[in-house]
Design brief:
By secondary structure, the protein is an alpha/beta fold. It is about 35% helix and about 15% strand. The strands form three sheets. Strands 1, 2, 3, 9 and 10 form a five-stranded parallel beta sheet that branches. Helix 5 (about 165-175) links the parallel strand 7 (about 155) and strand 8.
Amino acid sequence: MRLLAAIAALTATLLGATAFAEESCPKPVYLTIDTGHMGVAPLIIDVLKRQHVKATFFLANERTQAVGDKAAGTTLDDQWAPWWKALAAEGHDFGSHTWNHVIWRGDEPKGFVLQPTAGPQVGQKLHLSQADYCEELAKPARRFEAMTGRPMRALFRAPGGKTSPALLKAAKACGWQHVPWAAAGFLGDELSSDRYPNRVLLDRALRDVRSGDILLMHLGIWSRQDPWAPAVLEPLIIGLKAKGLCFATLRDHPAYARVGTAPR
């Protein structure tokens, strides 16, 4: 009887803690992070750990800087595999960003015109069928599972956020759901640091971000001279928390919580 009573007390405590967590965080925002040059990636993860924030990462095989003991390479190469595995074990969420970071440029009768910013055909205009595009989505998922031992979910973000109804229909037909971002959730790390200094971007986000917004940032942007992260990231998280907002992954988003395992 004492054992049963102890189990019941522990269960009540755990349920109470869960209820408290839900009640104390009724205004979620969803931080999403696309791959990039990775130069600030370890610093970003330090901030997320310090602030107890989980994020959703969208993975493409992009060119990287040399980082610590890692030589220049690509975001999904063997050097970075243990890093992604650790993030998966920590409870972050993951989706596809296409293998070669292919940007939609137009529709065609049998597919799409796409322009990669990664891989051997950088800058070229490619003519891909619907099946080809589905393979671009699936390849990061297969690589993620090989690196981490865990399946990716069937979420994707089109590079640059550029899509068409035909592209989204083709992706849905092969099992993928697209994730855009909120207007206020565009955090601006892709913008010129001369015209949009970090202070301006931080103030704008703290003013405009609202509960339910999906936020967008990157693991390093080549073109920005004054890195947005981690300089803006930690004060942004602290400031949004001070406004009563909290952070969740897309596993908790009403539109994406039920999205299943990525097609292979």
